[in-house]
Specification:
Length: 267
């Protein structure tokens, strides 16, 4: 028996940029150990597994796995999933998609060449005391440190400091958090802020473009910049753009995607 699997580059319109995600459209629920093994085999930041809800053609159960663990929230693999569902004709593009996940119901809608995701806002709470492993792992003196239910958020002085980071991943791996977001205002006038994301404890040393991190970055920068709509750039080696619109307790994340690989898992 063979299972189709795809790889989609998310938060980019160009192949081999943005963040690659594996996507499996399943006919029925799969064994958790099998899904983890497939994610390990794909060896990208996250692989998404979807099963259609029997009650609605536009609703899916969605789970995300890194090469080592299942995660509670993932933006780029959700964007990749929506892109693939429409591209494969598994649902009509003129109707929003609904995803049942460990973080509640998430939705995706087509917005021209872009896809807009409706995600929960995950604002950080400032931390006056934080683990020394965070400062020493990043090798910087933070301007601000916050934390939400998923990650630490660290503001640094400028974009140059974000781009030149060479963290000690061993120290970051010891933190009790999914990962660490590092951010600053953007120097490039096309963008409002820049960021990078490190999650070695979840099996991802540096994530190329992290949708869920922007659930934290959106509220953080909205408060400081006085803007509800912003454009962020994640300054990894692949790079990618994320549109962010803060709407109360929700965040709208916009991005593009392109399919790069189609194959079959033999099992």
């Amino acid at each position: 028996m063979a299972q189709k699997i795809f790889q989609v580059d998310a938060f980019t319109a160009e192949p081999f940029k943005g963040n690659p995600a594996g996507v499996c459209l399943l006919n029925e629920d799969a064994d958790e150990k099998w899904m983890q093994a497939v994610a390990r085999e794909m060896n990208v930041a996250e692989t998404a597994f979807l099963v259609r809800d029997e009650k609605s053609a536009d609703s899916f159960h969605l789970r995300w796995f890194t090469p080592t663990v299942e995660v509670d929230l993932c933006g780029h693999a959700t964007l990749a999933s929506a892109h693939l569902i429409w591209e494969e004709g598994a649902a009509q593009r003129d109707s929003p998609l609904s995803f049942q996940t460990r973080s509640g119901v998430l939705t995706a809608r087509s917005a021209g060449d872009w896809i807009e995701l409706d995600f929960p806002a995950e604002p950080p709470a400032e931390q006056s005391a934080y683990p020394l492993e965070l400062r020493d792992g990043l090798r910087i003196e933070p301007r601000y440190v916050g934390q939400n239910r998923l990650d630490f958020l660290v503001e640094v002085e400028n974009e140059k400091a974000v781009r030149r980071l060479e963290p000690d991943l061993r120290l970051l791996r010891s933190l009790r958090a999914r990962g660490v977001i590092v951010t600053s205002r953007a120097d490039d006038k096309r963008y409002d802020f820049v960021s990078r994301f490190f999650a070695p404890g979840a099996g991802v040393d540096e994530d190329p473009v992290t949708g869920s991190a922007h659930c934290c970055l959106g509220p953080f920068w909205s408060e400081r910049l006085g803007l509800d709509e912003m454009l962020g750039y994640q300054a990894s080696s692949r790079g990618g753009e994320v549109r962010v619109r803060v709407d109360g307790e929700r965040v709208q994340l916009g991005g593009q995607a392109v399919t790069t690989l189609r194959g079959e898992i033999m099992f």
